[in-house]
Design brief:
By secondary structure, the protein is mainly beta. The chain is built from five helices and 18 strands. The protein has a single domain, classed as Carbohydrate-selective porin OprB (Porin, Beta Barrel), CATH 2.40.160.180.
């Protein structure tokens, strides 16, 4: 049943955010482990040099009008007009351990649901919505990790205080080791212009590579370890993460039998005076997976509906993606991603996408006297493999989609947003998405999705 948020919970954090905003605290990125930002907040300063504490609050309300849908299935987007809200509040607590080492623990309250309980679109409309929701606020521990930075050589570089990052300095060339519980996309597939649903785009297949079936529980986090080697203009990353025991279930305990390997090569470039990055990512998931063709063949033999859960066996699913970002002017940047995965095994953790291309631009408001405002325009085209098409056409369900039948067409999404800086700490965003062929079904839609987002960084 579609949930609604508790007004008291949301309003409490809204008023708290607005009251603290009078201090003009610096706005920083939410979902990265280390980026450049402004000076640390007064809350951290009060704790001393060896401690850091920051907080954030994000509220998103989305809705769409009724749209054409001659049939629906278990995982269809509701065709009647609807709206849904999510709210979350996070405390980022850090402690210096020894030279170059930091411990970070993030505690978070979440509440609410995505549209249609986060079902009905492969490139889902809000990355602030999880696959599990509740009407009442509930507490989680999404991150608890240790990061060790080992200096090598090169010029000294200043590190600004940021979310999950102490201020300090290190050499330009270094090695970074991260171990514990965190999100794979804290480190991999990051992009300056499209990666943070709390401050830029909302759509899943625009903020991440849709084909990157990264290890994660239903909220997007898992256990693992990553190693990064930064050398001149290059970075090489490698990691191993724990898959869920069952597809997209909760990650509990340690079971190395189900795992994911990820590697990424990054090249930093300069176009005139403007920085850019090119990243090539590859991954392989290994675990008990269900092949689309096996499920479809079994259903044809038994006269039933295909179910990938019935044909799971030890298998692997590889994938690659390309991620590009480039600053064109001081205020304008562009981005693009393209990815493909094996397409033989049913999606295990992220979403039901086997082919994806996305891109767009981000424009800061300096030219019209609003330097902290941002306008974004992006688009994504998602597709399925041949065996996945046959599976869903026969009535199968995936992680997010399943209309009972399928008149296949690529899923196409356009998204635009305007983020208004109310203060340095508080931003109000108006977001619009236009969806063609939701869940790859030409018989359903098209329809618009409207959203408003309030975000405060304390």
């Amino acid at each position: 049943m579609q949930g609604t948020h508790k007004i008291s919970f949301s309003l409490f954090f809204v008023f708290a955010s607005l009251s603290v905003a009078s201090y003009s605290l610096p706005a920083v990125a939410d979902d990265v482990l280390a980026t450049n930002s402004a000076d640390p907040a007064p809350l951290s300063e009060a704790l001393g040099d060896d401690w850091s504490a920051q907080a954030q609050f994000t509220y998103v309300n989305q809705g769409h009008p009724s749209f054409n849908a001659p049939y629906s299935g278990t995982n269809s987007m509701t065709s009647a007009a609807q709206q849904a809200s999510t709210a979350d509040a996070t405390l980022f607590l850090g402690r210096r351990l020894w030279q170059g080492a930091q411990l970070w623990i993030n505690a978070e309250y979440d509440q609410g649901y995505g549209l249609s309980n986060t079902l009905g679109m492969a490139g889902f409309a809000s990355a602030e919505a999880y696959k599990i929701g509740q009407n009442a606020p509930y507490l989680r521990l999404p991150r608890a990790f240790i990061r060790q930075v080992i200096a090598l050589d090169g010029e000294a570089q200043t590190i600004q205080a940021d979310t999950n990052q102490f201020a300090g300095s290190t050499s330009a060339n270094n090695v970074v080791i991260t171990v514990g519980r965190f999100s794979v996309v804290d480190i991999f597939d990051t992009n300056t212009y499209a990666h943070d649903p709390r401050s830029d785009f909302l759509n899943w297949s625009i903020v991440d590579a849709g084909t990157f079936d990264y290890a994660a529980d239903s909220w997007g986090f898992t256990n693992g370890g990553a190693l990064e080697w930064n050398q001149d203009r290059w970075t090489l990353r490698g990691a191993m993460f724990q898959l869920s025991a069952l597809p997209n279930a909760q990650v509990t305990g340690f079971h190395p039998h189900q795992h994911s390997f990820v590697t990424e090569l990054e090249r930093r470039v300069q176009w005139g005076d403007h920085p850019g990055k090119v990243k090539l990512l590859a991954f392989v998931n290994q675990g008990d997976m269900g092949a689309y063709s096996d499920a479809t063949n079994l259903a044809a033999t038994t006269g039933t509906t295909p179910d990938a859960a019935l044909v799971r066996r030890q298998s692997s699913n590889p994938g690659v993606s390309l991620n590009i970002e480039q600053e064109l002017t001081q205020d304008l940047g562009v981005f693009a991603r393209a990815g493909i995965n094996g397409g033989k095994q049913a999606a295990y953790e992220f979403t039901d996408i086997n082919r994806s291309v996305s891109g767009g631009l981000s424009l800061r408001g300096g030219s019209w006297g609003r330097a902290d405002d941002t306008v974004g325009l992006g688009a994504a085209v998602n597709g399925l493999s041949a065996s996945a098409k046959a599976y869903f056409a026969a009535g199968g369900n995936g992680l997010l989609i399943g209309d009972g039948q399928l008149n296949y067409a690529p899923e196409k999404i356009i998204e635009a947003y305007y983020s208004i800086a109310i203060t340095k700490s508080v931003k109000l965003t108006f977001d619009y998405q236009h969806v063609n062929n939701p869940a790859y079904n030409h018989d359903r839609g098209p329809f618009p999705i409207y959203a408003v987002r309030l975000h405060a960084q304390l």
